[in-house]
Amino acid sequence: EEKLNLDDSQWEDIHVVTGALKMFFRELPEPLFPYCFFEQFVEAIKIQDNVTRIKSIRTLVKKLPRPNYDTMKILFEHLKKIAAKESVNLMSTQSLGIVFGPTLLRPEKETGNMAVHMLYQNQIVELMLSEYSKIFG
């Protein structure tokens, strides 16, 4: 409900905008990838065959609640555009996975597997960016 003046100079710093976006997703009551899907996405990213892995991720994405799916599709489309300008902004799909993976996808209860989970979180976001058209198309 707060009115924001996007012409304000504070929004010129891309780090402020990115930080606000990450904070929005981090403060949702449930992550964009709902908790009940966490283990399923982790199992899908572990699949060795790339074609099967992409199909599994696509199937899971299609099962998401409609608001999550719609938001995810728009967000990943935007992040894909950012990755396409990697030569200017230095943000590759791998970098975006590192930045957004733990924010968008996390287990409901943190266990001792945090480092392993982080690796999978990053890989899931990276795959969804690199295979956007196959997953959302």
TrEMBL record:
<dbReference type="Pfam" id="PF00620">
    <property type="entry name" value="RhoGAP"/>
</dbReference>
<keyword id="KW-0963">Cytoplasm</keyword>
<dbReference type="GO" id="GO:0005737">
    <property type="term" value="C:cytoplasm"/>
</dbReference>
<dbReference type="GO" id="GO:0007165">
    <property type="term" value="P:signal transduction"/>
</dbReference>
<dbReference type="GO" id="GO:0016020">
    <property type="term" value="C:membrane"/>
</dbReference>
<dbReference type="GO" id="GO:0005096">
    <property type="term" value="F:GTPase activator activity"/>
</dbReference>
<protein>
    <submittedName>
        <fullName>RHG15 protein</fullName>
    </submittedName>
</protein>
<feature type="domain" description="Rho-GAP">
    <location>
        <begin position="1"/>
        <end position="136"/>
    </location>
</feature>
<keyword id="KW-0472">Membrane</keyword>
<dbReference type="InterPro" id="IPR050729">
    <property type="entry name" value="Rho-GAP"/>
</dbReference>
<dbReference type="InterPro" id="IPR008936">
    <property type="entry name" value="Rho_GTPase_activation_prot"/>
</dbReference>
<dbReference type="InterPro" id="IPR000198">
    <property type="entry name" value="RhoGAP_dom"/>
</dbReference>
<keyword id="KW-0343">GTPase activation</keyword>
